[in-house]
Amino acid sequence: MKLNEFVEKFAEQFDDTDPSEITASTEFHELDEWSSIIGMTVIALAKTEYGKTITGKELRECVTVEDVFNLIAAK
Q: Count of CB atoms within 10 A of residue 53's CB?
């Protein structure tokens, strides 16, 4: 799993946010489009793409997209 590939997949979860706005250092909770629904899709992404299970609590504790990447990589 590479960070830049993960950032692209993470950005694909958003319909209205320009993917170029999302980088590894993006504080994703601050994005206008961020919602619990997108949070669920990120949890599903971790499971389907990487075979890793993360919880909503763990995701809420992440600040940046790179934090989510590191969480998944550590599982």
A: 11
Q: In the predicted model, what is the mean pLDDT of residues 12-29?
A: 97
- Determine the Cα–Cα distance for residues 39 and 1; give it in Å rounded to an integer: 20
Task: Identify the band that residue 48 occupies on the pLDDT scale cut at 50, 70 and 90.
Answer: very high
Q: What was the pLDDT predicted at 1? A: 86
Q: Are 17 and 31 in contact (CB under 8 A)?
A: yes
Amino acid (one-letter) located at 1: M
Tracing tokens 């994703």 back to the chain, one arrives at 28
How many other CB atoms are found less than 10 A from the CB of residue 68?
A: 24
Q: Which residues contact 12 (CB under 8 A, 6 or more apart)?
A: 19
